[in-house]
Write a structure and sequence with these properties.
Layout: H1 8-22, E1 29-34, H2 41-49, E2 56-64, E3 70-72, H3 77-83, E4 87-93, H4 102-114, E5 121-126, H5 133-146, E6 152-157, H6 167-171, E7 176-180, H7 194-207, E8 212-217, E9 220-225, E10 231-235, E11 253-256, H8 259-271, E12 277-283, H9 296-304, E13 312-318, E14 324-331, E15 337-338, E16 342-345, E17 350-354, E18 358-363, E19 366-371, E20 376-377, E21 382-389, E22 397-400
Parallel strand pairs: 1-2, 1-12, 2-4, 4-5, 5-6, 6-7, 7-8, 8-12
Antiparallel strand pairs: 2-3, 9-10, 9-11, 13-14, 14-21, 15-20, 16-19, 16-22, 17-21, 18-19
Helix pairs in contact: 2-3, 4-5, 8-9
Length: 401
């Protein structure tokens, strides 16, 4: 046989190559942030029903608001226990560290972690500027000295920090890193950039020598910007305070993470996992009734890679005035989807006005409704996106991608 004449080392290389060709995508561990500040029956149900998808929950347990006030959040331990999954407490620090009494803050965090005796990890989430990274690292080093022996420290990292030399000192303070890949821009451009996410994930993998996870989005936000393009408010799981946007002409634009886009990125991670990547943390846990998050069924399909065909339809329905018709889009499938780019209303109907992310543009005998901004149409829901005048009976309505 020819194989007998080949060197043993060469045979080993050939066998390894053959195994590599047959190897399938890597199964990644999944976790989810429980960021809801109100523990409702719907949240308890989501913890129970989605427990089979995750290894653990990361629960918002305490926060320091912009005014420097530290408070613990009420958590339902019974709901967590029923889920059968471990929980990691997270402390969110919104105020600049320079404005805080650090000794008092560290004492508060240490006291909080005592309320989570079953957890071996505590996570700190603080979005500071790159110039504050060295100071942030000193704070975390001081915190570690006060934490009990064996308590692991997890840390949220922003892509903006990856180019800073001070990041190495920050990474040295933590046992685990969570790279945030959503809502990373200082403007209202996008919620998730897949090209950027690939680059940032690879960049961190080359720089780090410890396990890390990536945080992916399941949600949407309404972003309000002023006349100079600066973000004035972000509405996601918490409604925007009307006083924060008083006098701002732009009352908001919807940003969201398309399930298909995030799913494609997840498949890339599974197929070509960077070194030391240990899993994904989803922000945030979807639950029934949350209009700014994927449906639980969509989240499950993305994780399991079982997306189904989109069942999107458009129809004309009687309006409030004689001859008036409402243009209605309906998602009859089980997957959330994006609104189509163009809707065409055919004669004898004539478009009157667009709404809900659509603008009317007439062209010949047909009326075109063009999507002015992307939005998510959740599974099982419908939305009216315009009005048409049909004096001599209904005309045709078409979806044109």
């Amino acid at each position: 046989m020819i194989a007998r004449r080949l060197p043993v080392a060469l045979l080993a290389v050939m066998l390894l190559a053959a195994c590599a060709e047959k190897a399938g995508p890597q199964a990644l561990e999944h976790e989810a942030y429980v960021w809801q500040r109100r523990w409702s029956p719907a949240l308890a149900a989501a913890l129970r029903d989605s427990a089979d998808l995750v290894r653990a929950w990361r629960v918002l347990a305490g926060e320091v608001d912009a005014g420097g006030n530290f408070r613990r959040l009420a958590v339902d331990p019974a709901a967590l226990a029923v889920s059968g999954r471990p929980a990691i407490p997270v402390v969110r620090i919104e105020a600049p560290l320079a404005t805080l009494d650090r000794a008092q803050l560290i004492a508060g965090i240490v006291a909080l972690q005592r309320d989570w005796p079953a957890s071996t990890t505590i996570e700190i989430d603080h979005d500071c500027g790159t110039r504050q990274l060295a100071d942030y690292a000193r704070f975390l080093a001081a915190l570690r000295q006060e934490l009990p022996s064996g308590r692991r420290l997890s840390l949220t990292v922003l892509p903006d920090w990856l180019a800073a030399s001070e990041l190495d000192g920050l990474l040295a303070t933590a046992d685990e890193i969570v790279l945030q890949l959503h809502a990373v821009h200082g403007s209202a451009r996008s919620l998730f950039d897949p090209a950027g996410a690939r680059a940032w994930t690879s960049q961190l993998a080359r720089r780090i020598d410890k396990p890390f996870r990536v945080a992916l989005p399941t949600y949407g936000s309404r972003v309000v910007v002023d006349e100079r393009g600066r973000i004035r408010a972000i509405e996601s799981e918490v409604p925007v305070d009307p006083y924060r946007v008083a006098g701002v002409p732009d009352q908001g634009r919807e940003l969201f993470a398309p399930p298909a886009t995030v799913s494609a990125f997840l498949r890339w991670l599974e197929k070509s996992p960077p070194p030391r990547l240990s899993g994904v943390v989803w922000f945030r846990l979807p639950l029934a009734g949350d209009q700014r998050a994927w449906t639980p069924a969509t989240w499950r399909a993305v994780i399991r890679d079982t997306e189904t065909a989109i069942r999107l339809s458009a129809e004309l329905r009687p309006g409030n005035q004689p001859g008036q018709q409402r243009i209605v889009l309906r998602n009859a499938g089980i997957m959330d989807t994006t609104l189509p780019a163009t809707l065409i209303v055919q004669a004898p109907c004539r478009g009157l006005t667009g709404s809900q992310s659509y603008l009317l543009e007439r062209q010949g005998e047909d009326s075109l409704f063009l999507r002015s901004q992307q939005a998510l149409l959740r599974a099982g829901s419908e939305v009216s996106v315009g009005l048409a005048d049909c004096p001599s009976g209904p005309g045709g309505l078409w979806i044109d991608e």
